[in-house]
Amino acid sequence: MKTYLVACNLHSPGEAYETLIDLLQRSWNGRRIGNNIWIVEVEDRAARALEQLTPLVGPDDSVVMIEVVPGADWGKLEGPTGWLDWLQKRISPRAVTA
């Protein structure tokens, strides 16, 4: 499994994205860390995973996936905290919290 940060810029809020959120949260074991920002686990490479997202977003939307690898340097200022333990187990025990 690979861990990715997924950031979405969605232009049609509401129910239009229920299937997208379901994929991120349930299928990809995602944790929401901000407004339309997720940490997910995917077996595929980013390009292949993005193919699954393409039919779930509109033509004016944008999505970026960035692989987060073990030992990556990262930090957190504020926001939901339920994902912090989840991320530390997969990436690095060296989290910096400001």
Question: Which key terms come to mind for this protein?
Answer:
Alpha-Beta Plaits, four-stranded antiparallel β-sheet, about 100 residues, alpha+beta, 3 helices, single chain
Instruction: Give the strand order, joined by hyphens, for the main sheet.
Output: 2-3-1-4
CATH class of the domain at 2-69: Alpha Beta
Quick one: overall form? globular
Major beta-sheet overview: 4 strands, antiparallel
CATH topology of the domain at 2-69: Alpha-Beta Plaits
Along the chain, the helix and strand elements come as: EHEEHEEHE
Q: Write the CATH architecture name of the domain at 2-69.
A: 2-Layer Sandwich
| Mean model confidence by pLDDT | 81
Number of helices: 3
Task: Report the C-alpha radius of gyration, rounded.
Answer: 13 Å
Helix proportion range: 25-40%
User: What structural class is derived from the secondary structure elements?
Assistant: alpha+beta
β-strand amount = 25-35%
Commentary on this structure:
By secondary structure, the protein is α+β, with helices and mostly antiparallel strands. The chain has a domain at 2-69: 2-Layer Sandwich (Alpha-Beta Plaits). The chain has 3 helices and 6 strands, in the order βαββαββαβ. The strands form 2 sheets. The protein has a 4-stranded antiparallel beta sheet, with helices on both faces. It starts with a strand and ends with a strand. The mean pLDDT is 81.
